[in-house]
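Budget justification aside, the reviewers requested a transparent look at the raw inputs and outputs of the sequence design task funded under Objective 1. We therefore reproduce one unedited record. The lines immediately below are the structure tokens for a 585-residue chain.
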């Protein structure tokens, strides 16, 4: 009975649930009975030392203009807690909108965007302003008596005041949430004066904006409001492309339910005094606990999560997850738990991206090139994944003379006591203090690096060798697979195991073609056209690499012929010139 009473109290205080059916309540309580192993696990890290060193490292890095991922997370999470997401009418008067909200407190930042309607993200200066705002909101009446009045920070604003239809967009700019179409990108790149500027322009067009990053953390914060009904001190963090510095506008939002920060877990049980009687429930495995927790959270997201649709509980995957679409933000979301290796991978990629700006620019360029030619895909299959492609870029940069970025083993050797992390027997240790990392002087331009990247993998011995960023050198393949890329932390795994021979052959052929194109004067120098804004400029340099290719259906590298591709590109360029001339005439 005490379990039932505790569960009922938690639900009532967090959700203000009215007339929740007994059957639903009992099924949720049953799912909560397996959290012992999950909450008692250890990752081999001294939490006190780690936090102290992380604080010192963060302060040092900020002085040098670089923020650690930990600092970035803390800042964004604090901003998200002070923010609300508001659905607005398209004719909403911006001045009246701000005046109305300012009654509850000072506004730090706000912006509008479009996703199934017009929305505004509003960050207040103080948490109290959010409380004040929520106290005054109304819950829409409904004819169905069983409606659950769950209060969230997703609000709707109606009939505040409108502007003239002819002038409704003036003064209010909606921030982009997706990348520009590839054809528009090619035109933009074709107007640049150098390949280096083309790469910088592509990076600027594709990378996550400040506003999009804030929105991602806000969605995590809104989901946390639901999860705290069961785990009051939990956090939900974005990981992967949303925060590692390599995400592009429109990428999925991967989230981690983090229970490691719950207080009292690392406190020695006293001989006398208080302890939580119902904190732990026994389970036969950590995986079973993860599945139970995600099953409960998934059920709540489905039933109570405003704007969350298409909820799928994919609990039997290698990494159990809850997948859903968050319509107000337009994000496709995956929520996992106990996925600490993925979080360490996120930290590693973020660190590499912060070490040298050429890292991110080259990764964005190669990823865009790969997507334009179908080397990568948003659909699971035999394609090379974005993560595999990113690791290939990092490996290439480690192989430069001198290296542009250090190996993972070197980063591990620089680590301090607070950096030591062992997860399920896997050594995930690497330095977090940027000031301890001394880079070698490499002055290669982005244009040089892009051409060398294609040359490097056009001739790489994939049939014999494995890619390993931990060592920074090729190693004999430990298994029979067309492409072998060692997982940086779970070293027995091949992150590219899904890639088949035909996809690898196609990647190599495209590398050969792209390397050849960058060596041709016809395509590697600006061609003019459209400079005055009339007509489309002639593609050149990087823009040429994004044009459609006919490299397909290659069954073996021995049968590959380069001359037809060369002739095809020449013909394509001539066709583009003729079209431009016809437009001018």
């Amino acid at each position: 009975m005490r379990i039932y009473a505790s569960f009922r109290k938690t639900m009532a205080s967090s959700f203000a649930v009215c007339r929740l059916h007994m059957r639903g309540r009992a099924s949720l309580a049953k799912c909560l009975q397996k959290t012992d192993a999950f909450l008692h696990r250890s990752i081999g890290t001294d939490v006190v030392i780690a936090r102290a060193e992380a604080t010192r490292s963060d302060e040092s890095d900020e002085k040098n203009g670089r923020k650690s991922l930990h600092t970035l997370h803390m800042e964004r999470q604090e901003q998200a807690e002070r923010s609300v997401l508001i659905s607005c009418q398209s004719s909403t008067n911006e001045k009246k909108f701000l005046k109305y909200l300012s009654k509850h407190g000072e506004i730090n930042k706000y912006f509008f965007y479009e996703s199934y309607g017009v929305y505004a993200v509003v960050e207040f200066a103080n948490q109290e302003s959010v409380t004040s705002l929520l106290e005054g909101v109304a819950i829409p009446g409904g004819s169905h008596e069983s409606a659950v009045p769950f209060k969230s920070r997703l609000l709707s604003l109606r009939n505040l005041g409108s502007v003239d239809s002819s002038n409704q967009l003036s003064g209010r700019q909606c921030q982009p949430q997706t990348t520009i179409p590839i054809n528009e990108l090619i035109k933009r790149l074709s107007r640049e004066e150098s390949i280096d500027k083309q790469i910088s322009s592509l990076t600027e067009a594709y990378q996550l904006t400040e506003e999009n990053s804030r929105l991602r953390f806000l969605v995590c914060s809104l989901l946390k409001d639901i999860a705290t009904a069961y785990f009051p001190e939990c956090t939900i963090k974005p990981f992967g492309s949303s925060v590692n510095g390599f995400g592009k506008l429109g990428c999925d939002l991967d989230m981690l339910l983090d229970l490691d920060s719950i207080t009292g877990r690392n406190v020695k049980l006293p001989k006398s005094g208080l302890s939580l009687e119902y904190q732990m429930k026994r389970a036969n495995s950590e995986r079973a606990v993860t599945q139970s927790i995600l099953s409960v959270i998934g059920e709540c997201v489905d039933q109570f999560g405003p704007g969350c649709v298409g909820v799928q509980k994919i609990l039997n995957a290698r990494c159990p997850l809850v997948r859903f679409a968050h319509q107000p933000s337009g994000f496709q979301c995956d929520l996992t738990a106990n996925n600490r290796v993925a979080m360490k991978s996120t930290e590693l990629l973020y660190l590499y991206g912060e070490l040298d700006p050429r890292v991110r620019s080259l990764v964005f360029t190669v990823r865009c090139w790969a997507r334009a030619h179908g080397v990568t895909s948003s659909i699971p299959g035999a394609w090379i994944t974005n993560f595999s492609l990113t690791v290939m870029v990092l490996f290439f940069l480690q192989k430069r003379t001198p290296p542009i970025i250090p190996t993972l083993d070197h980063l591990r050797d620089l680590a301090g006591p607070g950096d030591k992390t062992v997860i399920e027997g896997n050594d995930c240790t690497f330095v977090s203090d940027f000031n301890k990392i001394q880079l070698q002087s490499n002055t290669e331009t982005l244009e040089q690096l892009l051409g060398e990247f294609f040359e490097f993998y056009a001739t790489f011995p994939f049939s014999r060798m494995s890619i390993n960023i931990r060592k920074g050198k090729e190693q004999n393949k430990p298994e029979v697979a067309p492409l072998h890329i060692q997982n940086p932390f779970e070293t027995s795994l091949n992150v590219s195991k899904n890639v088949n021979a035909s996809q690898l052959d196609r990647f190599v052929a495209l590398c050969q073609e792209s390397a050849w194109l960058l060596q041709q004067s016809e395509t590697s120098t600006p061609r003019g056209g459209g400079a005055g804004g009339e007509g489309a400029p002639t593609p050149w340099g990087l823009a040429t690499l994004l044009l459609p290719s006919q490299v397909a259906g290659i069954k073996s590298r021995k049968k590959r012929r380069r001359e037809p591709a060369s002739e095809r590109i020449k013909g394509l360029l001539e066709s583009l010139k003729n079209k431009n001339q016809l437009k001018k005439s």
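The CA atoms of residues 136 and 308 lie 24 Å apart. The first strand starts at residue 83 and ends at 88. Computational costs for records of this kind are itemized in the attached budget.
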